[in-house]
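Researcher: Dear colleague, please comment on this protein.
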Amino acid sequence: MELTMMDEIGQILAQGGDPRDHEDDLRERYGRTCAVVVIDSSGFTRTTREHGIMYVLSKLQQMREAIIPVLNRNKCFSYITEADSFIALFPDVECAFNAVLESAQAVCDRRIMFTPERPYKIDAGIGYGSLLITGGHGEFFGSEMNLASKLGEDTAQANQLLITDAAYAELPKSKKRLFRKGSELISGLDIDFHALVMEDRWGLLPCGE
């Protein structure tokens, strides 16, 4: 079985070494500069409490079936699912941006209803930079991974896309105009981001409505 980066770190530690002494080599073999997307489901916890886990899992499966083809069409080269979220890697930010907007539209087109009154909605965060891809069971590490996760899972509201400064810098001017600048204290850190409210066929919905 092929070793993963974490396997190699474990071997270095077992031999009394310091992985920091091998960082350049590990980055050369496991690092990649790319865009990382975290897509999260809006209202998952509340809906689980109200309707039960099997009901919510059926909706989650419908969401995954809608989104996976979109990721593949937009050159996603690796993704994992974690609970009600996707973490996906793309060669550039424009592919990631297109994948998020098309994913929101795909969920809308499927007319997935989280409750009889409320449609299924997603929110997302995008980062861009150097990531370490461990292989094996698919773990991604790096500061932009952390930021994308904070933005997509903890900060973005329904139908909202938040991207990091690094991701914003990679977008063409025509798409930069769609965003507004924001900042929020997250886990004790002041994090700057750029926000976009995504459209769907139920109309332009302000965040939180």
